[in-house]
Amino acid sequence: MSNQRFKAITSSHTRTEIVVEDSGRRSEYFGMNVFNEERMLQYLTKDAYDRVKAAVVSGVKIDRKVADQVAEGMKTWAISMGATHYTHWFQPLTGTTAEKHDAFFDFSPEGRVMEKFGGGQLVQQESDASSFPNGGIRNTFEARGYTAWDPTSPAFLYGTTLCIPTVFVAYTGEALDNKAPLLRALNAMDEAATAVAKFFDKNVTKVYATLGWEQEYFLIDKSLAFSRPDISLAGRTLVGQSAAKGQQLDDHYFGVIPNRVLNFMKDLEKECTKLGIPVKTRHNEVAPNQFELAPIFEETNLAVDHNLLLMDVMEKIADKHFFKVLFHEKPFRGINGSGKHNNWSLSTDTGVNLLSPGSTPMKNLQFLTFFVNTIKAVDNYEELLRSSIASAGNDHRLGANEAPPAILSIFIGEQLNEVLNELEGVTKGKLSPEEKTELKLNVVGKIPEILLDNTDRNRTSPFAFTGNKFEMRGVGSKSNCAKPMMVLNTIVAKQLMAFKKEVDQLVDKKGLKKDEAIFNVLREYIKTSKRIRFEGDGYSEIWENEAKSRGLSNNKNTPKALQVLTSKESLALFKSMNVMSEIEVRVRQEVELEEYILHIQIEGRVFNELAYSYIIPAAVEYQNKLIKNVVGLKEIYGAAHKKMSESQLDIVERISEHIRAIKIKTDAMVDERKKANNISDISKKAFAYCDNVRPYFDEIRYHCDKLEQLVGDEYWPLTKYRELLFIK
Ligand code: ADP
Ligand code: MG
Predict the structure, then answer these.
(1) What positions does the domain GS catalytic occupy (predicted)?
(2) Which of 55, 239, 317, 659 has its CA 20 to 30 A from that of 355?
């Protein structure tokens, strides 16, 4: 066996378990490392506390004096907890999070040593924007940008560093991160949804979008993971013959979690709890070594920050337990990939979930209003929503025969379909008293308070209503939820604004009663958004054809999916909702395309290395062994050796064929890569990588995997699927 593989396997087998004790009641230390309400009350003056609260709830600006007080409080708390540094924590357009640490330690003007951290440092920091991806439109941006405190997400202590969540903006004002546009979208949503919620309850003054993500991931033994260049560099296996046992038996799903993994999970949950991340469920997923972690849902901005923080914490804790976490959407062929379902809803400051049916016809009309408007919004902007989850990794799911499909459609279940069908028949204009009663009692009034049981049945749907929320299932396991959440909240906010306007007009100009007007507008929306509703099998070919005839988009790869971002409609949408300017959208499209290209480029390079430095040499070595055998047989048996050598020679020839194919295809792939690299238009370049480089990957892999089957196990240099995939 090759040295590298042998060492890795031995080391994985001799690991001693790190046992983690259960740590008592989590409520006792939940959020102990967060500068939360409790801490603020303790460390801030009443006035400073009130002002921070006002900033969180209604976006009131915090002046410098108050910022100084908050900084002082934070510093005192953080240092009492052992902090030595602070950092502005932000979300650049690629990667997950970034930070630049500064020590509290400083000199006073008189030259004395002191611990310094004031309002200035809290509120704003300079950051060299040029080293972060900001698109090719560089000269329109100044090279420098700054990070600015986001008081809606509390500061937290991570290790010995005080982390302050921030937005990242260019000096010219453009957002250089994922958080700023998300905050703007959430703001737009608050305004639009509050106005509509007031139709039903005048006391509502704020609406929060809520997000509950479900993070899927793979855990691989660290030394096994690092024994493979593809996992180390590309985050996934580029070659590898399926293990004889995969997920056919379905015995991993909800099965017993292996001890080593359980210890990792306990450790992780402890750390998350301290950081105020409300993790709740843990279980095995369908594939071997695949797991999921889900929190209790939170306000969207905070939920996004918590997911990003979680991914970081996971990597660190995994490392301590000698694991590597794979967040890639498709680390192994032949078994399920990983996603990050985004459960989304809207909550009022009066404590009502706007997507939850209620106990009275009025509450149900409110539910239907938000429900139908969401459907309408997704129908209007399905292609844009699809673009928000595009990435090279996610192409393996959305673009291939894997859950969920690239076509966006909405599943709502039989009961709600019936309700919508009935509403479609509502009379235009004024309603007779009988019809109104009938509607309220027998249609709207009949929506059961709890829909959970009959709605969550269709696992093939990319956007499913699950009783009291929508579940967006196409989000990639690695991606930042800020992207889909920014788009989803923008399009629904836009839709709610249009709805409000239409209802007001019917009331003001046509003299309709408010509820009549609402029924009238909803009826039209139900009619015009029908094509997005689909209850059947989302993976079937029938649906693909049907969706095409309905005019729904089916963008199977990232370069194609990203095109719509800069369409006239998309640009107008983002601009009108004050979420992104044209240049901000263009920069994001460029950065995403650049990231796609880099991703495929790295995979191409790794393929080259695998082929030339690993697989071909191993195949040749084994081939030599066979040839030596044949030569030996000939020496001993003379002419009689022919029959005895037949099989060996057959294998020798087959090995040669595969080597030849690998070499030809790898060289051709490298040529295509060179051609693609000479293209200056970024979109064309991305398409070249997608259409001309990437297709070789499958072809090269085919021959590599055939060789894995032919070549003797002890000659094979790469750790095999069966060794990687079953944690003991
Ligand atoms: P499943 O695996 O069937 O999708 P889970 O229980 O794993 O279900 O996940 C449900 C997710 O939905 C959880 O993350 C939960 O926090 C979230 N969720 C529940 N209610 C809401 C809501 N109102 N808004 C957003 N997310 C929600
Ligand atoms: Mg789910």
Answers:
(1) 178-615
(2) 55
Atom of ligand 1 nearest to the CA of 456: 3
Are 31-176 and 595-724 equal in CATH topology? no
* Predicted confidence (pLDDT) at residue 142 exceeds the cutoff of 60: no
Residue to substitute in 279, 306, 469 for testing ligand 1 pocket (most ligand atoms within 8 angstroms of CB): 469
The verdict on the CB of residue 214 being under 6 Å from ligand 1 is yes
pLDDT digits (tens, 9 = 90+) for 406-442: 999 999 998 899 999 999 988 888 888 888 888 888 7
Residue 559, preceding peptide bond in cis (omega within 30° of 0): no
Ligand 1 contact via 520 beta carbon (within 6 Å): no
Say if residue 448's pLDDT is above 50. Answer: yes
CA 212 to centroid of ligand 1, rounded, Å: 5
Name the residue with tokens 């690299």. 677
In short, whether 281's Cβ falls inside 6 Å of ligand 1 is: yes
Ligand 1 proximity of 200 Cβ (cutoff 6 Å): no
If you ran DSSP here, which 8-state letter would residue 227 be given? T
Identify the CA nearest to 532 among candidates 415, 419, 378, 420: 378
Extents of the domains making up the chain:
31-176, 186-580, 595-724
Pairing of strands 124-128, 113-115: unpaired
Phi, psi of 362 (to 5 degrees): -65, -45
Distance CA 578, CA 490 (A): 9
Residue 407 burial (10 A CB sphere; 0-12, 13-18, 19+)? buried
- CATH 3.30.590.10, domain 186-580, yes or no: yes
Task: Supply 709's token pair.
Answer: 């089957």
Pocket lining: 464 vs ligand 1, CB cutoff 6 Å: no
> The pTM is what?
0.95
Which residues make Cβ contacts (< 8 Å) with residue 159, sequence separation at least 6?
Answer: none
Given the CA of residue 353, which atom of ligand 1 is nearest to it? 23
Element (H, E) at 294: strand 290-295
Q: Three-state SS for 397?
A: helix
- The string of pLDDT tens digits covering residues 449-468 is 656 555 556 788 999 999 89
Q: Specify whether domain 595-724 bears CATH 1.20.120.1560.
A: yes
d(CA 155, CA 70): 11
